[in-house]
Design a protein that fits this description.
- About 75% of the residues lie in helices and about 5% in strands.
- It starts with a helix and ends with a helix.
- The protein has 13 helices and four strands.
Length: about 300
């Protein structure tokens, strides 16, 4: 039904943009859970996203795996492993130390990927290959353009993963585990006094968040057709965080942020090469307006007064 509707009302440009929005929405929900429920600010999620993407690329390019379901499962497993390792190392710390440690680990992963697979990236013959059949949810295709594949098959697959992600983190949030994690965020000392294992709660929460971020990376690789180490640059990690701060709701807010910033980045990039300036000003105004201590109208008036 979703494909039929899109075939009539959405052109290729918007279909592509919405699809990337769904992928970034998965990242936003995952990172939003870590931010709003666990109170942890991670700069390692861009590395986990890249690990998921490289898993798909390497298995397809080097091992000849053309089954998308299998590729995403492997992406899930490698991301789970990497998230667990990073969580075990970094979740002993909080606040600034946690942020800087996740940033440092992300840079280490960046360096390993860069020097192992090169700066030019890896092309992915998945979907478009004329000599191999690609399989997704039991359907076999061969030699199809990525946009045709997206319209006919992959968009529903993205919707499914988005729904699974939203449902998973909603259930975790309402579970005893989620409530314990929220208690740790609100009062760490009292949580320790009642016997909660703060380290393991945070590590498990981080691993869950990072795993779905890696899955999003795997899904991204399928429709992008190319992965490269520039994906893991620190400014992309900051953009992931920006997705998560929109509206303190772990599903609607982060997805809204991901979609809005994706569209803003796309349109501002068409207007000027200085699109980062537009994005930065927008985020500055949004964060200022969302602060309890700053009134957006007053801020704009004050800024306008500087030019009088």
């Amino acid at each position: 039904m979703a494909n039929l509707l899109l075939s009539f009302i959405v052109n290729d440009y918007w279909l592509n943009l919405i699809s990337y929005g769904l992928i970034y929405g998965i990242v936003a929900i995952s990172l939003g859970f870590l931010l709003h429920i666990a109170g942890l600010i991670s700069l390692a999620h861009i590395a986990l996203f890249t690990i998921g993407a490289y898993t798909v690329a390497l298995l397809n390019l080097s091992w000849g795996v053309y089954n998308i379901d299998l590729l995403i499962i492997y992406s899930f497993l490698t991301s789970l492993t990497a998230s667990a390792v990073i969580g075990l190392i970094s979740c002993r710390y909080t606040k600034l130390h946690f942020i800087m440690l996740t940033f440092a680990l992300s840079e280490v992963i960046h360096a390993i990927i860069h020097y192992t697979y090169g700066a030019t990236g890896l092309p992915i013959p998945l979907v478009v290959s004329q000599s191999h059949q690609t399989t997704i949810m039991g359907i076999t295709i061969i030699g199809q353009s990525r946009l045709a594949f997206l319209r006919m098959y992959f968009f529903n697959y993205l919707l499914l993963w988005f729904a699974v992600t939203a449902l998973t983190f909603t259930l975790i949030r309402e579970s005893p585990f989620g409530k314990a994690l929220k208690a740790v965020k609100n009062n760490e000392e009292r949580s320790a006094d009642v016997g909660l294992n703060i380290y393991w709660l945070r590590t498990i929460g981080f691993a869950a968040s990072g795993t779905f971020t890696g899955v999003a990376g795997g899904l991204w690789a399928v429709i992008s057709g190319l992965v490269d180490p520039h994906m893991i640059h620190w400014d992309a990690g900051m953009e992931f965080l920006a997705y998560a701060v929109f509206i303190p709701n772990i599903v609607i807010g982060p997805y809204f942020g991901a979609m809005l910033l994706s569209v803003l980045r796309e349109w501002s990039g068409l207007l000027t090469i200085h699109w980062r300036l537009i994005l930065g000003v927008f985020l500055m105004l949004f964060m200022a307006s969302s602060s309890k201590n700053i009134n957006l109208v007053k801020l704009v008036r004050n800024l306008g007064g500087l030019f009088k």
